[in-house]
Amino acid sequence: MTLIHLVVLALIQGITEFLPISSSAHLILTPTFLGEADQGPLIDVMAHAGTLMAVLVYFWRDIRDVVIGKFALLGGRITPGGRLALLVAASLPPVLIFGGALFALDLVEQLRSPLVIAISTLVFAVPLWLADKYAPSVKSIETMTFKDAVLIGIAQALALIPGASRSGTTMTAGRALGLGRSESARFSMLMSIPVIVAFAVISIIRLMSETEATTQLHDGLIVAALSFISALAAIAVLMRLVDRVGFLPFVIYRVALGVGLLVWLAL
Fold first, then answer.
1. Are the C-beta atoms of 137 and 124 separated by less than 8 Å?
2. pLDDT tens for the 267 residues of the chain, in order
3. Where are the domains of the chain?
């Protein structure tokens, strides 16, 4: 892979990961429009690892509270950080089960299709708009229930379909359940941490077993580093603007992207 291709992938991943427009869809489409070979899901996960580091840095206070809260849980005390850890844990089973099934059935590559992306981009744009427009903002992470966390976790599992958008589906579910915009975004990012870690570990193990693994790992580390920088900036911008601008601009973008892809595929 060329350095330019790696830089473009990293910037796209960093900017789009936490916006509800599907970073995986953009990573899949990028080589098509650049005239390059598909980088494959392993490089994609390395890009996600870079954005993971950005989440850890930006939300370091939440991460600190979660770590302290876990030790408190061992002592029988539930602190706010410990409760947040339990909420995140409650959201995990659906995506791990669905993701494990996709890997086991070798369906990951089959879903990396422009047609799948176009359809899911359009389909999941509608509930995002409806939830953001009509759902009340009456809950915070501190007041959300474990049932809420499980339902948001189910929405996260749907995001394994390229184009659905992990941040998009989880923010949609959060808003539909009454979380405010910034709270939905915050929980969406925090619950991404164990998911990205799990799939990064799986993919790196697969990467090391393939030929030219050293070259792929080198490329992946470049993408991860650049994704970290761009994602950190994107998170800061999103968290400052989401309450003011809402999700409508992203809905409009998704519709334009989905329709544009369908027209392109029809030509």
1. no
2. 677 888 888 888 888 888 898 887 887 788 777 777 766 666 777 787 889 999 999 999 999 999 999 999 988 899 999 999 999 999 999 998 998 888 788 777 778 788 999 999 999 999 999 999 999 999 999 999 999 999 999 999 999 998 999 999 999 999 999 999 999 999 999 999 998 888 777 766 766 665 555 556 678 788 889 999 999 999 998 898 898 889 999 999 999 999 999 999 998
3. 3-266
